[in-house]
Design a protein that fits this description.
With 140 residues, this protein is mostly helical. It has one domain: Winged helix-like DNA-binding domain superfamily/Winged helix DNA-binding domain (Arc Repressor Mutant, subunit A, Orthogonal Bundle), CATH 1.10.10. The protein is built from seven helices and three strands; from the N terminus they run H-H-E-H-H-E-E-H-H-H. The longest helix has 21 residues. The chain is globular and about 50 Å long. GO terms for molecular function: DNA-binding transcription factor activity.
């Protein structure tokens, strides 16, 4: 991550800020329940609340109440959050390509990604918590 930090720092983001924004951006309707966001990031509920509070103050995310469960709320990516990612992501992907993926052949890259997914399933089993559930509700 030290190799990737300068791009994030230049954009005013910490690693966890960036991870939070990316997870929201790739989620259906660019939102996740706070509990699912905590599970995906590996943060405690209070930890994710602090991150979302900070990102909300910067206008990068907002909170929305859950219409079916008064106890739950969603973190939602804002237009400003999307714009910040549009600046950061291309540079971040270039860093990843320069340091990791660009060094591998196509078959090596496929094996590497498959291995990472297998490891993620054990190390972070909640890495996609809530994403499929929301997608299923949208399609019904």
């Amino acid at each position: 991550m030290a190799r990737f930090q300068p791009v994030l720092t230049a954009a005013g983001l910490s690693e966890i800020d960036f991870e939070t924004l990316i997870r929201l951006a790739r989620s259906p309707r660019q939102r996740l329940r706070m509990s699912d966001l905590a599970a995906q990031t590996g943060l405690s509920t209070s930890g994710v609340t602090r991150v979302v509070d900070r990102l909300e103050r910067e206008g990068l995310v907002c909170r929305e109440a859950c219409p079916t469960d008064r106890r739950a709320s969603y973190a939602v990516l804002t237009d400003a959050g999307r714009e910040r990612l549009e600046v950061v992501v291309p540079r971040h992907l270039q860093d990843i390509d320069d340091t990791l993926t660009g060094l591998l052949s196509r078959s090596e890259l496929e094996a590497f990604l498959g291995s990472l997914r297998k490891i993620r399933a054990v190390v972070r089993p909640c890495a996609t918590a809530g994403a499929q559930e929301i997608e299923e509700r949208i399609s019904s």
